[in-house]
Amino acid sequence: MINLKGGVGKSTISALLARYALSTRQRDVLAIDLDPQANLSQALMSSNYNSFLAERRPSIVEIFNGYRPASPGASGSLLAPNTGVELITKVGANTLQLIPSRFDFSDNLTNSLRPDPKVLARLAGNFQHRDLIIIDCAPTESILTHAAYHASGLVLVPVKPEFFATIGFPLLHESLESFRRNNRGHTLDVAGVVINNAFYHGGNDGGPEKERALKEIRAEAKTNSWPIFKTQIPFSRGFPKIMRGDHSYSGNAAEFPRFAKEFFDSIGL
What we know:
alpha/beta, 11 helices, 4-stranded mixed sheet, 14% strand, two-stranded antiparallel sheet
């Protein structure tokens, strides 16, 4: 899940797709939070995220560093295969698990001499039994971006139909092409572009500004040969609730399964 522009809903869509894959498609799911802002972690863990921080449980930080730091009563140690994996929920024999992020992720990478971009690819080897692994990326080009590419086969690009909507598209296109040139044995395809936070049909449906933005999105996507999903994700104040698994009021967010179905059908899951 990536767009080299912030505020397009990557973490929200990641959380919702992960929950939908488990609950509706009966799939075994792992989510990985690669964003130092840790929004996906906070969304899926909810109030448990504070205890995760307080107890200093291992996270994506330790996975990139390759070891678990010493603590009172315990020396530092190499990581066991499932270190840093948090159970979010379970349905029957399937689970939704998360490798969470922490706010000091960027500092840890900065202080590391040589972060290994293939860490996630090797980690994914421990989870070959999973039906789906979702990696939520930060909106900036970094070692984390390349780590996600090495571990992935498909890219999903969310975008909002607004002014400067496509500002991240050329950057992402060049980023992907550069990775492909340097890793010719690795197939990394764009599954598609999803229009997020579009106005729900009714009223003016976003008016002329949305229409101008959509023209730019379609033109840029066509230039890059990126397909655009037919189903748009509507704006709704219900999304923060269902991100946490609370369906007490979902409003227009109840439309999200239409996109989830189209997406999962398109990738054969």
